[in-house]
Amino acid sequence: GKPLVLVIRDGWGIAPDSPNNAVTQAHTPNMDKLLAEHPNCVLEASGQAVGVRAGSQGSSEVGHLNMGAGRIVKQEVLRVDELIESGELFKIPRLTDASTHCKTTGAKFHLMGLVQDQGVHAMQEHLFALLGFLAGQGVEKVFVHFFGDGRDTPPRSALTYLAQLEEKIAQCGVGQIASVMGRYYAMDRTGNWGRTECAYNALTCGAGLTARSAGEAIENAYARADAELQRRTSSDDDLLLETDEF
């Protein structure tokens, strides 16, 4: 058979013609000819069409994965949603064993990750569900390591998400915010070990600047964007140890 080539042109989207639309304003005779002479259609790039929540934005990773697979591929956020809804998440042996270990030995349970509601790399509702589970299991020492976004969420939105997290902690009656840092450090994927090392040292050694509260830590760091936040908030009691669970 004839070879089939899948070409993905990042940034080339379909939107109404306007002075701000670089695609329609450009001179594109080759693309115009392809569209005029060959079958074509429009693909949805968000929501359930690409395996994320209805109304949620897509991303480059999500779009590429679905186009390459030629089918809808459920993303992690949607799969975890379904596990929480069915209750199966809280039956996973690794999770139940970890909570039992903390309850019986007094070890700490650490929760860490992006705190945001856009669902690109994380969803704060999943964090909230885990807080509720640990409260129900009677785990007393629960520490949350807050990773600010600021890329898939508006810059300087961390305080909004912090307030929502603190409200949930108060409702559950368990958990305290142990550290605050940005995805620039904690979730670097460029191979920059120096950034990852900063996050690791903050979590395990208490390295970094300190503040009296998570809110103060964020306020002090706002000379930079959310993604680059790097602050600790509590004492050495919240450090991640080998005997802890996370």
TrEMBL record:
GO terms for molecular function: manganese ion binding; phosphoglycerate mutase activity. Its cofactor is Mn(2+). GO terms for biological process: glucose catabolic process; glycolytic process. It is an enzyme of class 5 (isomerase). Its EC number is 5.4.2.12. One of its GO terms (cellular component) is cytosol. Pathway: Carbohydrate degradation; glycolysis; pyruvate from D-glyceraldehyde 3-phosphate: step 3/5. The keyword Repeat does not apply. Keywords: Glycolysis, Isomerase, Manganese, Metal-binding. It holds the Pfam family iPGM_N. Residues 80-225 form the BPG-independent PGAM N-terminal domain. The keyword Metal-binding applies. PANTHER family: 2,3-BISPHOSPHOGLYCERATE-INDEPENDENT PHOSPHOGLYCERATE MUTASE. Belongs to the BPG-independent phosphoglycerate mutase family. This is phosphoglycerate mutase (2,3-diphosphoglycerate-independent). It comes from marine sediment metagenome.
